[in-house]
Amino acid sequence: MYNKKAYGLGSVRSVIRELFEYGKQRAAEYGADKVFDFSLGNPSVPPPAAVEEAIIDFVKSTEPVALHGYTSAQGDQGVRKAVAEYINERFGTTFTADCIYMTCGAAAALTIALGAVVTPEIDEVIAVAPYFPEYKVFAEAAGAAFKVLPISKKDFQIDSEALKKMLTPKTAAIILNSPNNPSGVVYNDECLKEVSRVLGSYAKEIGHPIYIIADEPYRELVYGGIVPGYIPNFYKDSIVCYSYSKLLSLPGERIGYIAVNPEAADAKEIYLAVMGAGRALGYVCAPSLMQYVVGRCLRLKPDLEAYEKNRELIYGGLSKIGYECVPPDGAFYLFVKVPGGDAEAFSEKAKEYGVLVVPGDGFGAEGYVRLSYCVAYETIKNALPHFESLYEDFTRKCAH
Ligand code: PLP
Questions:
Q1: Taking residues 75-102, what's their average pLDDT?
Q2: How much is the average pLDDT of 168-174?
Q3: Could you tell me the distance, in angstroms and rounded to a whole number, from the CA of residue 399 to the centre of ligand 1?
Q4: How many angstroms does the Cα of residue 44 sit away from the middle of ligand 1?
Q5: Does the C-beta of 106 come closer than 6 Å to ligand 1?
Q6: pLDDT at 346
Q7: Quick check: 181 and 132 in contact, CB under 8 A?
């Protein structure tokens, strides 16, 4: 026998993976230069040199049994202290090492954080559309009922009145992801203030906290001088899930952390629940070498130049053709409105032009496709004429 739920999750390949596999197949058939794959969010710039230097230095200069041995379940004390101090320096907060839990990236951070706050009685988790599809999997694995706040504002900021109507005494948490995958939108301070006010006053009414779980793998990937608001400075009952996957181009190394806001009403209990959820999931002792490396590389910034150039080219290029795109303030995604609204059909049609884009339905946003522009600049340049033909072809089809 086997677990049917797990089988279901394992046997259905995600749309993104399907496209990726299709791209590989098409490249083998027609040549790699005939495929324009905008499906995957894999960083396209190498990690900063300082990261590789740190890895080599640790390997060469540290006694190997210690270097590759277990750290504490929640992560190395020195690294956690350095992370906490760095957060405080940047955001004027009061985190300590005992608020930080090192994780295998944001994915593990989210599953642990959800495991820490969802209870059999208070079991609803809200995601804001458009959202990273794995949230549903993570929330349901934690035993939660997954609810989605649909898009209602043109600028993709959060409609706090609509959010208010979704809250119930069973609401445990809301996941906020800014800069956002898939839209590239950064929630502005006004929006964060409103959301915090609505959640805070409802939580008071029902007599238990509603947590904001801030999913922040793209925090440092922002353009045009925008600084995403730091959720703990807006809302006390908050947990930050951070990752170095995108910031340092280390997605395969699986490193990130959870930061429990020390100002939360039950901060100590929540941190212990994080430790417990991590233990129950087997997410103890994130990769030791990577803990030490990020501990040394806290102040590194991503090399945004390549993404910024890609962003300008793809946003400008597609807009010029006639596509309606959500202005991308952060991350490396462009969310494009599909002429006529049928995203599945558009994505299928795009394949005929060798262009791979992900339909937005899986992100809780019908009528859009997502493009990951973490690709070579040349890929975008060469893809633009195909986008143009696709636009003409598809809009003609829609008109009939
Ligand atoms: N959250 C969002 C919004 C993401 O886009 C991703 C990865 O693409 C993750 C979480 C998971 O990231 P990690 O590699 O840190 O587990």
A1: 98
A2: 98
A3: 38
A4: 15
A5: yes
A6: 97
A7: yes
Q: Atom 8, ligand 1: which residue's CA is nearest? A: 41
pLDDT on residue 13 = 76
pLDDT confidence tier of residue 400, bands split at 50, 70 and 90:
low
Instruction: Find the 389 Cα to ligand 1 centroid distance in Å.
Output: 33
Ligand 1 pocket member 339 (CB < 6 A): no
Region 227-235 average pLDDT: 98
Domains and CATH numbers, the chain: 4-47+303-399 (3.90.1150.10), 49-296 (3.40.640.10)
Pocket lining: 213 vs ligand 1, CB cutoff 6 Å = no
Mean pLDDT value of segment 158-179: 98
**In the predicted structure, residue 116 carries a pLDDT above the cut 70:** yes
Distance (Å) from CA 107 to ligand 1 centroid: 6
pLDDT (tens digit per residue) in 33-83: 899 999 988 999 999 999 999 999 999 999 999 999 999 999 999 999 999
